[in-house]
């Protein structure tokens, strides 16, 4: 059995420019800052890159959960972390790649147990152009221009619980997590070893804490560009959490646009829950911030009444309740 937490989030971005692409070579001037966006058909969808989302998440874990982050090493044109998932929480959860000398163990990589999508607008739109001017100096004022948008961003993520705090030394890309110095450290710190599988496992309590922290950080997620003039709370305003046997992300297609507004397709949600009922390892936890998509209240209440496996509450309650079932999911 493969145990994976799957999550779906909506982020309200009412006046935002959370991730920018810089200037476009084809623009009429060189001081226009574009937001990142993708096209599908004739529509434009602003987005926040997966890398940016992961940066926000990692930063929040450091500030809110007091994670010890792996120091960044810069050599010539490359940069890497210490590649030490034993001492550094983020090397475990966010993965790494580091090219060591052959005598030191060669190249080591770790596939991140935490996988994220970009945050993509549910609503197709054209970003707004905002004009500004720098005039606090002598001489002519300097005009500039940037884009921003008003939308709701959707995203999915998964956390492979079986991989949290578990490290391998196989000669296989993504699975050669260990090198001689790290193996020596693992032995000194008493990590459980399986020589046949070439596997080291962190203590159960550390594995659980790291997994719980990843989920605990969600209500406090912070970050984004242009916050001095487009201040936005990027913490999720709607969230769904569950654990599943396998790697399928069943919540990917449950958001939709209706008459220019973002909403949840509850029929699609009920359908995937029915289809994957034999794979679900937990109840389905739904959280919503009051004041955001209040019209969903009735649908959520109906869903909970029809199926006791749906648990609903505010964002903080939902995360706290879900957090309590993680230790059982990770029991050896």
From TrEMBL:
It comes from the Archaea. One of its GO terms (biological process) is defense response to virus. Pfam families: DevR (PF01905). The keyword rRNA-binding does not apply. Keywords: Antiviral defense. InterPro entries: Cas7/Cst2/DevR_sub_I-B/Tneap, CRISPR-assoc_Cas7/Cst2/DevR. Transmembrane segments: none annotated. Signal peptide: none annotated. CRISPR (clustered regularly interspaced short palindromic repeat) is an adaptive immune system that provides protection against mobile genetic elements (viruses, transposable elements and conjugative plasmids). CRISPR clusters contain spacers, sequences complementary to antecedent mobile elements, and target invading nucleic acids. CRISPR clusters are transcribed and processed into CRISPR RNA (crRNA). This is DevR family CRISPR-associated autoregulator.
